[in-house]
Predict the 3D structure of the following.
Amino acid sequence: MKKRNFIPLLAAALLLTGCGTNSSSGSQSVSYSRDIFAMDTYMSIRSYGGSESALDAAEKRIHDLEAELSVTVPESDISRINSGSGKPVEVSSDTLTIVKKAIETGALTDGALDITAYPLVKEWGFTTGNYNIPSAERISELLPCVDYRKISISGSTVALSADQQIDLGALAKGYTGDEVIAALRENGADAAVISLGGNVQTFGHKPDGSPWKVAVRDPFSPEKDMCTVEIGEKAVITSGNYERCFTGEDGKSYWHIIDPADGFPADNGIVSATIIGDRGIDCDALSTAMFVKGLDGAAGLWRADRTYDMILITDDARILYTEGLEGTFTNMSDMPAEVIRVD
């Protein structure tokens, strides 16, 4: 599945952002690109100006973060926290930043994002690919372990309750996008567009001075683009029910975004949630939370904040996007689109 998804992702990044060597004068006339496999996904980076060394720095940062944050790497911070039997574990500043953001987002969204739901995600088989529909009894056994409020941070240490485990998958790629952008800037790049498994993030300007144009996939036909948005320096991050899913023996589809309230894949009327904002870590966390919250809950959270924009796709095939995207949103699908407004 990964190889099938990689081609349209990379093609969209190249086509819609106008990548390639530009004929205008100046440092941005030179571009550099690289494809990377890390964090269990395909990634692509294209930078303008600077040199190949900026990509070297960005790639190193990606692999360093994977070693710190991956729940499947035995010596990672997350693995050590999960095997810590409730004792405080010394972690990197990266891990500390992400865990703090996870707790903050959990509180903001009334627990719609909860990184302690990892035992449930694992029970469903989404971490191994050995998919399984857990019994109601098994889910009832695991639900008491799910509570982000039990995570304890002291100095540079993180501790869980003895029966808890965490996974930072809902935030790690967003944070990595922020760090890749920082590495490219620090190493001389003038502009860049990156796609980390579909998480798109940009900085600087396209060589021709026009806005970046980013496509969002159609959750009903993931091989196709559903819409585009024109952005400046932003992150565009989507959570959808098509990303990691399986069909059970009962004929129903199940996906990896678990509702911490009941232990089942979130089924609140949303099949895709895209957040567009200044920081990848915020957009990544919110895209998962909005998917879990459903239309009314997501719209309510946005109206209370409005520091980001949002595109929601409902299970009855409607597109709803926030008013900040008016003039930059282009519908490429047959679905009706309407604007979510403050009033």
